[in-house]
Design goal:
Largest sheet: 6 strands, antiparallel
Number of strands: 15
Low-confidence stretches: 383-388, 558-567
CATH architecture of one domain: Sandwich
CATH class of one domain: Mainly Beta
Helix content: 55-70%
C-alpha cells in the first residue's frame, strides 16, 4: 500500500510540473509571440502619402519616437498631439511648438481645436488632411486582424489548468486526507468559477483568456497553500476569489469609458487619502506596523485598496502629454501616500508605491532628471524611516545575517530557506511541509512554502507567470490605443512585479524582509481582491482583436473575411 501511495505521489508531482510548464509556455506564446497588428482609427494625408493614426493619443513631430512622424525641417521634434475622445471626437493640441498649429487656416487656442473629416491641420507650414474612419470601414479593417487566442486555444490552456487543479487535489488526498472533503469542495468551486468566467467572456465576444488563466493558475497554488495551513478558512478563501472575479468584471465595465474614468479621478484621490487617514488614526500596532483595520469582526488592509486607487489617479492625472504641471500634482499626491504608509510602518507597501510612481512618471514625462530627483528623495526618506521605526531598522540589520541569529531576528527567514532547500526540485507534496506552522508562512514567506511542498520548478513557474504578465504589459504599452490604459497596465505590473521580487528575495534573504504578499498566492483577502482589480487594468490595455474590455468585439462575416462590430 505504501508503495502504491509513493508511486502515485511521484506521478502527481511529475504531472503537476509538466502541466505548469505547459500552461506558462502556452500563455507566453499566445501573449508575446503573435505578430502585432496595428489598430487604425483614422489617417493623415501628407501629399500622396497616407499616415495611419493608430492610437487615441498621437504625438506628431519630427522625432523618430513620434507616433506620426513628419520629417520636415520646420516641424518641431514634438510639435502637436492628436487626441480621440471616448465619443470618437478628435482634438489637436499644440505642444509649445515653434511653428504653431492651424486648423483650416485658423490658429488653434491653448485649449486645442476639434478636427473633423476633411479638415486640414497645418503644423509648421506642413499641411496634413485629416481623414476620419467610418464605422463600416473600421469594422472591415478589424475583421482582417487576427483574433486573440486564434493560434493558441484558450480553451485548451484552461483545460490543462483544470487537470492541474485535479492533480493538485489528488496530491492533497495522498498527503493530507484529514480535511479532504472541504478541500475537494474548495477546488470544485474554483473550477466552477474559472469556467464561469471563461464562458462569460466568450458570451461577451472576448476570445483572449490568457491573463485570467495566469491569475487562476496562481490562485490554484494559493488555494493549495490555504488548504495546507488553514483548511478551516477555505470557504472564506473561495468567497474572496468569487468577489475578486466580480470586481475584475466590474472594473472592466467601468474602464470602457475614458471620460467616466478621468471624471472620477478626484473622488478616487479623496478615497485613497481618506483610507490612509483612517488607517493611521484607528488601526492598532501589530509587530511594529499598523496595517490592519477591524470592522464588524473582520479585518482588512486598506493599503491594498489604496494601490488600485493610487494607480487609477496616477494614470488619469498623467493622461495629457501636454500638461506638464500634472506631473507635479501627482508627485505631491504620491509623497502624501508614501509618507502616510511610512507613518503606519508599512515600509514594503511604501516601496511598492514608490516603484510604481517611478514607472508611470517616466512613462509620461520621459525625464531621467525627474526619476533621479525622486530616487534622491526616496533615499533620504528611507534613512529617516529606518531611524524612526525600530522594527524597520531591525529588518535591515538582519539582512544578510539571518544565520547569525536563527532564534531572534533571523528566525523566519532561516526556517524559510531550510524548508525551501528541503523541498528540492519536486517538493514533498501538498500539505507535507512543516514551514506552514511558522508565523506568516502562508503570507510573507509563501514562496518558501511552495518550494517546500511543490518544489523549486513549480515555484519558478509561479514567478514566471507574473513575469509573463509584466512582459505583456510592456509590449502592450508600446502599441496601446490610449496612454491611460498603457500607463495603468505598466503601473499595475510594476506593483505586482515589485511585490513578487520583495516576497521571493526577502524570503531568501537576498533583500531585506519587508513582509509583502506574493500576488494571488499569499493568503489574505485584501491582497487577493486588489490583485484581481489590477488585472482589469492589464486586460483593458490589450490591443489584440476581441481581447480587451474597452473595445467592442468584431463578428467576422462568413465568406467575406470582413468584420462587423457587435452592438
Amino acid at each position: 500500500m505504501n508503495e502504491v501511495l509513493s508511486h502515485s505521489l511521484i506521478l502527481s508531482k511529475s504531472v503537476l510540473i509538466l502541466l505548469s510548464v505547459l500552461i506558462i509556455a502556452r500563455c507566453l506564446r499566445s501573449l508575446l509571440s503573435e505578430r502585432y497588428e496595428a489598430e487604425v482609427w483614422a489617417w493623415l494625408q501628407l501629399g500622396k502619402e497616407q499616415l495611419p493614426v493608430t492610437h487615441w493619443e498621437n504625438l506628431i513631430g519630427r522625432s523618430r519616437s513620434a507616433d506620426i512622424r513628419v520629417d520636415r525641417a520646420q516641424v518641431s521634434r514634438v510639435h502637436a498631439v492628436l487626441v480621440r475622445s471616448g465619443k470618437g471626437v478628435w482634438t489637436v493640441y499644440d505642444i509649445f511648438s515653434k511653428g504653431g498649429v492651424w486648423v483650416n487656416r485658423i490658429k488653434i487656442s491653448p485649449h486645442g481645436a476639434e478636427v473633423h473629416n476633411g479638415d486640414v491641420i497645418n503644423i509648421g507650414g506642413t499641411p496634413l488632411r485629416f481623414k476620419d474612419m467610418t464605422t463600416e470601414k473600421r469594422q472591415q479593417l478589424e475583421g482582417k486582424r487576427t483574433a486573440a487566442g486564434k493560434r493558441v486555444s484558450p480553451f485548451g490552456t484552461l483545460l490543462e489548468l483544470s487537470v492541474f487543479q485535479i492533480f493538485l487535489l489528488l496530491q492533497h488526498a495522498l498527503c493530507s486526507p484529514e480535511d479532504l472533503t472541504l478541500i475537494a469542495l474548495a477546488f470544485a468551486a474554483l473550477l466552477a468559477l474559472e469556467w464561469f468566467c471563461y464562458s462569460s467572456m466568450r458570451l461577451l465576444g472576448r476570445s483572449g483568456f490568457e491573463i485570467e488563466t495566469i491569475a487562476f493558475y496562481l490562485s490554484s497554488l494559493g488555494l493549495s497553500v490555504a488548504a495546507s495551513s488553514v483548511p478551516e478558512d477555505l470557504v472564506k478563501q473561495i468567497l474572496l476569489m468569487i468577489a475578486g472575479v466580480a470586481l475584475f468584471l466590474l472594473m472592466g465595465w467601468w474602464l470602457r469609458s475614458l471620460r467616466r474614468v478621468t471624471a472620477a479621478r478626484g473622488l478616487a484621490a479623496f478615497a485613497a487619502l481618506a483610507l490612509l487617514a483612517v488607517n493611521a488614526v484607528f488601526s492598532e500596532e501589530i509587530m511594529g506596523a499598523r496595517n490592519w483595520l477591524s470592522f464588524g469582526g473582520y479585518s482588512f488592509q486598506p493599503s491594498e485598496f489604496v494601490k488600485v486607487l493610487y494607480l487609477y489617479v496616477g494614470a488619469s492625472t498623467l493622461d495629457r502629454l501636454y500638461r506638464k504641471q500634472n506631473l507635479f500634482v501627482f508627485m505631491a499626491f504620491s509623497a502624501i501616500c508614501v509618507i502616510a504608509l511610512a507613518l503606519i510602518g508599512d515600509f514594503g507597501t511604501a516601496l511598492v508605491f514608490f516603484v510604481c510612481f517611478l514607472v508611470i512618471s517616466f512613462l509620461r514625462s520621459g525625464s531621467i532628471a525627474t526619476v533621479l530627483l525622486a530616487l534622491t528623495g526616496a533615499g533620504m526618506a528611507g534613512v529617516l524611516a529606518v531611524s524612526v521605526k525600530p522594527h524597520i531598522a531591525r529588518r535591515f540589520a538582519a539582512w544578510g545575517h539571518v544565520w547569525e541569529d536563527i532564534y531572534g531576528a533571523g528566525y523566519q527567514q532561516a526556517r524559510a530557506m531550510s524548508a525551501a532547500a528541503a523541498g528540492g526540485l519536486f517538493g514533498k507534496g501538498a500539505g507535507s511541509g512543516w514551514l506552514k506552522n511558522i508565523v506568516a508562512a502562508d503570507t510573507d514567506m509563501v514562496f518558501a512554502v511552495v518550494c517546500e511542498e511543490q518544489g523549486l520548478i513549480i515555484a519558478i513557474c509561479m514567478v514566471l507567470a507574473v513575469m509573463a504578465l509584466a512582459f505583456f504589459a510592456v509590449r502592450s504599452a508600446r502599441y496601446g490605443r490610449s496612454a491611460w490604459y498603457a500607463i495603468a497596465a505598466c503601473g499595475a505590473m510594476a506593483m505586482l512585479l515589485t511585490q513578487t521580487a520583495l516576497n521571493v528575495f526577502g524570503t531568501m534573504d537576498l533583500l531585506p524582509f519587508t513582509g509583502v504578499t506574493f500576488p494571488f498566492v499569499s493568503r489574505g483577502g485584501s491582497s487577493l481582491l486588489s490583485c484581481w482589480m489590477l488585472m482589469a487594468f492589464l486586460k483593458g490595455s490589450d490591443t489584440r482583436r476581441d481581447a480587451s474590455f474597452v473595445v467592442n468585439p468584431v463578428r467576422v462575416i462568413p465568406g467575406t473575411g470582413e468584420g462587423k462590430a457587435k452592438a
